[in-house]
Amino acid sequence: MITRIGVTKHNSDIVLNNRVVYLSNISAKKGDTVYEQTKNILETIDKNLRCVGSSKNDILTMSIYLSNIHTHEEMKLALNEWIADPPATSILGACLLGTNSKIEIAVSAAIPNVMSSVPSLFDLNYIV
Q1: What is the pLDDT along the chain (128 residues), one digit of tens a residue?
Q2: Does residue 53 lie in a domain region?
Q3: Residue at 123 is within a domain
Q4: Are the CB atoms for 51 and 121 separated by under 8 Å?
Q5: Which domain holds residue 97?
Protein backbone atom coordinates (compact mmCIF):
# COMPACT_ATOMS: atom_id res chain seq x y z
CA MET A 1 0.00 0.00 0.00
CA ILE A 2 1.30 3.43 -0.94
CA THR A 3 0.72 6.25 1.57
CA ARG A 4 1.21 9.88 0.52
CA ILE A 5 1.57 12.78 2.95
CA GLY A 6 1.71 16.50 2.26
CA VAL A 7 0.05 16.08 -1.11
CA THR A 8 -0.34 19.02 -3.47
CA LYS A 9 -1.40 19.04 -7.11
CA HIS A 10 2.11 18.18 -8.32
CA ASN A 11 3.97 16.71 -5.33
CA SER A 12 3.86 14.57 -2.21
CA ASP A 13 6.24 15.62 0.57
CA ILE A 14 6.47 12.07 1.89
CA VAL A 15 5.65 8.74 0.23
CA LEU A 16 5.70 5.39 2.02
CA ASN A 17 5.81 2.06 0.20
CA ASN A 18 7.03 -1.41 1.19
CA ARG A 19 8.91 -0.25 4.29
CA VAL A 20 10.70 2.53 2.39
CA VAL A 21 10.06 6.23 2.92
CA TYR A 22 10.77 8.81 0.23
CA LEU A 23 11.19 12.46 1.23
CA SER A 24 10.88 14.92 -1.65
CA ASN A 25 13.25 17.82 -2.10
CA ILE A 26 13.40 19.59 1.25
CA SER A 27 14.55 23.19 1.29
CA ALA A 28 15.67 25.21 4.29
CA LYS A 29 13.25 27.30 6.33
CA LYS A 30 16.13 29.39 7.68
CA GLY A 31 19.81 30.09 7.18
CA ASP A 32 21.89 32.37 4.98
CA THR A 33 24.81 30.10 4.13
CA VAL A 34 24.89 26.66 2.53
CA TYR A 35 26.19 25.28 5.83
CA GLU A 36 23.29 26.81 7.83
CA GLN A 37 20.69 25.77 5.27
CA THR A 38 22.09 22.22 5.17
CA LYS A 39 21.89 21.96 8.98
CA ASN A 40 18.28 23.18 8.87
CA ILE A 41 17.32 20.66 6.18
CA LEU A 42 19.01 17.81 8.06
CA GLU A 43 16.98 18.69 11.19
CA THR A 44 13.80 18.47 9.09
CA ILE A 45 14.89 15.14 7.62
CA ASP A 46 15.53 13.82 11.16
CA LYS A 47 12.03 14.85 12.30
CA ASN A 48 10.30 13.42 9.24
CA LEU A 49 12.15 10.12 9.45
CA ARG A 50 11.37 9.74 13.17
CA CYS A 51 7.67 10.25 12.41
CA VAL A 52 7.63 7.14 10.24
CA GLY A 53 9.83 4.94 12.42
CA SER A 54 13.06 5.51 10.52
CA SER A 55 16.27 7.43 11.21
CA LYS A 56 19.29 8.91 9.48
CA ASN A 57 21.05 5.55 10.01
CA ASP A 58 18.44 3.97 7.72
CA ILE A 59 18.95 6.35 4.78
CA LEU A 60 19.55 4.45 1.55
CA THR A 61 19.99 7.28 -0.96
CA MET A 62 20.45 11.02 -0.80
CA SER A 63 20.22 13.49 -3.69
CA ILE A 64 21.63 16.92 -2.95
CA TYR A 65 20.92 19.87 -5.22
CA LEU A 66 23.11 22.97 -4.90
CA SER A 67 22.40 26.30 -6.57
CA ASN A 68 26.19 26.77 -6.75
CA ILE A 69 28.10 23.50 -7.06
CA HIS A 70 31.25 25.25 -5.80
CA THR A 71 29.68 25.43 -2.32
CA HIS A 72 29.75 21.64 -1.92
CA GLU A 73 32.49 21.78 0.74
CA GLU A 74 30.18 23.80 3.06
CA MET A 75 27.45 21.24 2.51
CA LYS A 76 29.83 18.33 3.11
CA LEU A 77 30.97 19.86 6.41
CA ALA A 78 27.40 19.95 7.75
CA LEU A 79 26.62 16.51 6.31
CA ASN A 80 29.73 14.91 7.85
CA GLU A 81 28.83 16.38 11.26
CA TRP A 82 25.36 14.82 10.97
CA ILE A 83 25.84 11.30 9.62
CA ALA A 84 28.48 8.66 10.33
CA ASP A 85 27.59 6.13 7.64
CA PRO A 86 26.91 7.98 4.39
CA PRO A 87 24.29 6.59 2.01
CA ALA A 88 24.58 6.39 -1.77
CA THR A 89 24.77 10.12 -2.51
CA SER A 90 24.46 12.28 -5.62
CA ILE A 91 25.49 15.94 -5.55
CA LEU A 92 24.20 18.06 -8.41
CA GLY A 93 24.22 21.67 -9.46
CA ALA A 94 20.66 22.90 -10.02
CA CYS A 95 18.50 25.95 -10.53
CA LEU A 96 16.41 25.96 -7.34
CA LEU A 97 12.92 27.45 -7.14
CA GLY A 98 13.08 29.10 -3.70
CA THR A 99 14.12 32.75 -3.59
CA ASN A 100 16.91 32.17 -1.04
CA SER A 101 17.37 28.42 -1.54
CA LYS A 102 20.98 27.42 -1.87
CA ILE A 103 20.37 23.69 -1.32
CA GLU A 104 17.63 21.06 -1.44
CA ILE A 105 17.90 17.44 -0.33
CA ALA A 106 15.79 14.39 -1.20
CA VAL A 107 16.22 11.05 0.57
CA SER A 108 14.93 7.51 0.61
CA ALA A 109 15.23 5.45 3.78
CA ALA A 110 14.32 2.01 5.04
CA ILE A 111 11.67 1.70 7.73
CA PRO A 112 13.14 -1.04 9.92
CA ASN A 113 10.12 -1.76 12.12
CA VAL A 114 6.75 -2.91 10.84
CA MET A 115 4.12 -0.39 11.83
CA SER A 116 0.51 -1.45 12.17
CA SER A 117 -1.04 1.90 11.34
CA VAL A 118 1.25 4.37 9.61
CA PRO A 119 -1.24 7.24 9.13
CA SER A 120 -2.01 7.37 12.85
CA LEU A 121 1.66 8.17 13.55
CA PHE A 122 1.59 11.40 11.59
CA ASP A 123 1.15 14.76 13.19
CA LEU A 124 0.91 16.83 10.01
CA ASN A 125 1.98 19.97 11.87
CA TYR A 126 5.21 18.20 12.76
CA ILE A 127 6.10 16.90 9.32
CA VAL A 128 7.92 19.13 6.81
Answers
A1: 899 998 999 899 999 999 999 999 898 889 999 999 999 999 999 999 998 999 999 999 999 999 999 999 999 999 999 999 889 999 999 988 867 899 999 999 999 965 544 544 455 444 55
A2: yes
A3: no
A4: yes
A5: 3-112
